[in-house]
Design a protein that fits this description.
The chain is of the alpha/beta class. It has a single domain, classed as D-tyrosyl-trna(Tyr) Deacylase, Chain: A (3-Layer(bba) Sandwich). It has 3 helices and 8 strands; from the N terminus they run βββαβββαββα. Strands 1, 2, 3, 6, 7 and 8 form a 6-stranded mixed beta sheet that branches. A two-stranded antiparallel sheet has the order 4-5. 35% of the residues are buried.
């Protein structure tokens, strides 16, 4: 499972010109589900995302979580995060989960975030959406559950 997380002043997603989801200050999460993902990975990613301290404290240090700043989260499904561009010019999406699996795990992620008391807005699964945001910072992070599962000790860059 992959997430592109952006700290935002505000964000919204529209479908056919109608607002489907909208938040003020918080996080926009573009969420991609892989073929081998499961509910545990969805919950792990939700837990990690909710706990990220990417909001500034009084000393302008990124030290506060989404809950600390009473922020909200807008979650938008994004299978293209699993695109493989290693060969040719057209991305391959074979690593992306089929829609039936992806939608269920997307919902597990959203419910896990909401269980922490975070207001969650969403787009609509399998719809063409327009996403508008004001990136605050900018702060943008990429998370992949496979990376989270690896021990930090096994990473020579740590």
């Amino acid at each position: 499972m992959r997430a592109c997380i952006q700290r935002v002043s505000r964000a919204r997603v529209t479908i056919g010109g109608k607002v489907a989801g909208e938040i003020g200050p918080g996080m926009l999460v573009l969420l991609g589900v892989a073929v081998d993902d499961d509910e545990q990975r969805a919950r792990t990613l939700a837990e990690k995302t909710v706990g990220l301290r990417i909001f500034e404290d009084a000393d302008e240090k990124m030290n506060l979580s989404l809950a600390d700043v009473a922020g909200a989260m807008l979650v938008v499904s994004q299978f293209t995060l699993l695109g493989d561009c290693r060969k040719g010019r057209r991305p391959s999406f074979t690593a992306a989960a089929p829609p039936e699996l992806a939608e269920g795990l997307y919902r597990v992620f959203v419910e896990a975030v909401a269980s922490h008391g975070i207001p969650v807005a969403t787009g609509q699964f399998r719809q063409h959406m327009e996403v508008e945001l004001v990136n605050d910072g900018p702060v943008t992070l990429l998370l992949d559950t496979r990376d989270l599962e690896r021990s930090r000790r096994s990473d020579p860059g740590q």
